[in-house]
């Protein structure tokens, strides 16, 4: 408890029940002997916008998705998403209700990282990954030993920008789409770098 430590420090007090005037160790010991109280868990960091989503929002999203995919073959439905290979802004242990399956902490900051897009169809086909390094230049040695047909790029912060997403779209998504007949569906999130006018205008036939 910061306020307790600050008070004790300012008054020159050194309570033997605390460690460096911090109550936490005793608090954790207290929680250990009271199983009905919140538990101390390592939490996953998520953004506040994601944390604000309600169960009804998720239900409505899936209902809308089901309606739009009604007549589309699974091998023509492609889902893509980005992930971070080394993004770690630091995790903390926090108090959660016992039984919480996915403890999370909402925050809006993160460190730079190496990013990668994975894409797979609803029928199980996995397309080549697309990896973005944090660098000013892309070195040949960084493009050796990856999965077959992996695409590589780089940005200053290691994040996907609109140029990298457009390049992924042209090198990975378009060849997949052109190899199939009939309507195709590409499912992703609304990350700003994905909202690209040039991408929307690219012919897929």
Automatic annotation (TrEMBL):
InterPro entries: DDE_SF_endonuclease_dom. It comes from the Eukaryota. Residues 116-199 form the DDE-1 domain. Pfam families: DDE_1. GO terms for molecular function: nucleic acid binding. This is DDE-1 domain-containing protein. It comes from Rhamnusium bicolor.
